[in-house]
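SUBJECT: A protein chain and its fold
Encoding: whole-number codes for local backbone shapes
Chain under study, with its fold:
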Amino acid sequence: MVEMRVAGIALDAASRSPIVLLRDPSGRRQVPIWIDQAQAQNIMAGLSDQTPPRPLSHDLMVELLQAGGLELSKVIVHAIEDSTFRAVLKLRTEGDEELELDARPSDAIALAVRTGSGIWMLEEVVADASIPVDAEADAEDAADFRRFIDGISPAELVRHINQAQTEAEEDPG
């Protein structure tokens, strides 16, 4: 199993659907999981560390777990079936008994970020669903862009933009 962390929430460029991105510890692979808008907001609320005036559903779930003497020890995303990820909540009772509950990955992630519990994924799932991330290339691109911006005057930048717009208008296809 691989412990993953929430790298962020993104939007699918084609469908405009939210995606939660889980990244492996090496930072070389991330797994996109398509979710709906409400699920994205629940995860983002958990990541924000801001306490809402009234508990949201997942905040209430955490309180219910605590009231029942249960602790969320970890979340495991264990399978992909028909393009749908499957997850379980691993719970521990006060008497150290372990329980397992089926959960949607988005709900499991929302609970994990609120409780500080680990998000784990089977290696086979990571291998099947991950997309490569080239952090070095991203950092290099950012550094190149910073050098470009640092080395150009505002007037040159305006000329550059105007030239690009003119070229785009002349070649619409």
